[in-house]
Design a protein that fits this description.
The chain is mainly beta and 147 residues long. The protein has two helices and ten strands, in the order βββββββββααβ. It has helices at residues 113-117, 121-136, and strands spanning 10-14, 18-24, 32-39, 53-61, 63-68, 71-76, 80-83, 89-93, 97-105, 140-143. It has a seven-stranded antiparallel sheet, with no helix packed on it. Strand 1 (10-14) and strand 2 (18-24) form a beta hairpin.
């Protein structure tokens, strides 16, 4: 079990574009990373891909845009986004944006063979099929609070 207050997390500067406060590092779990991200308006990073990680993102404060798979979505506090592994995405902040990011390595593509071997071959095939279906969607907005 890991219990950590955000003030205890390690702060990382990402190329001067945003600050990440790491709450759970990938060295502490088998497949998951958790961080609080803070973006400064006008300092938008380039579109990028996480080949082996799914990303879940909850906007905690601020507003901006999320570009995923060639589509653009408005993002505001309370919006939750899911980005499949391997999908190009980018966050554009219009005012200071803070969000909670949860990354999960996909067990069928993780470089650790031990994680892959734990899945029976039928489960691995099912997971790969599910990943292909998810990649075919540009973005799933899983939940948006009423406004």
């Amino acid at each position: 079990m890991i219990i950590r207050h955000p003030q205890e997390g390690q702060k990382l500067d990402v190329a001067g574009l945003n600050e990440i406060t790491v709450l759970i590092d990938r060295s502490e779990t088998a497949l998951t990373e958790v961080a609080i991200n803070a973006w400064t308006p006008g300092l938008d990073g380039p579109p990028h891909v996480h080949e082996r990680k799914e990303q879940n993102f909850l906007v905690l404060d601020g507003h901006g845009e999320v570009h995923i798979g060639g589509r653009t979505f408005q993002a505001a506090a309370g919006d939750f986004f899911y980005v499949p592994a391997g999908m190009v995405h980018q966050t554009i902040s219009r005012d200071p944006v803070m969000g909670l990011g949860i990354f999960s390595s996909t067990p069928f593509s993780t470089p650790t063979r031990k994680a892959t071997r734990r899945l029976p071959s039928t489960s691995t095939r099912c997971a790969k099929r599910a990943a292909r279906r998810l990649r075919s969607r540009a973005l799933a907005i899983l939940w948006r609070p009423p406004r």
